[in-house]
Amino acid sequence: MNKIANKQVICEVLMEKAKNDKDVVVLCSDSRGSSSLTPYADAFPEQFVEVGIAEQSLVSIAAGLARCGKKPYAASPACFLSTRSMEQAKVDCAYSHTNVKLIGVSGGVSYGALGMTHHSATDIADMASIPGMRVYLPSDRFQTRKLMEALYADTDPAYVRVGRNAVEDIYSEDNCPFEMDRATVLGEGSDVAIIACGEMVKPAVEAMEKLKAEGVSAGVLDMYCVKPLDAAAVIKAAENAKAVVVVEEHTRLCGLGAMVAQVLGENCPRRMKSLGLPDAPAIAGKSQEVFDYYGLNADGIAAAAHELLK
Question: What pTM value is reported for the model?
Answer without folding.
Answer: 0.96
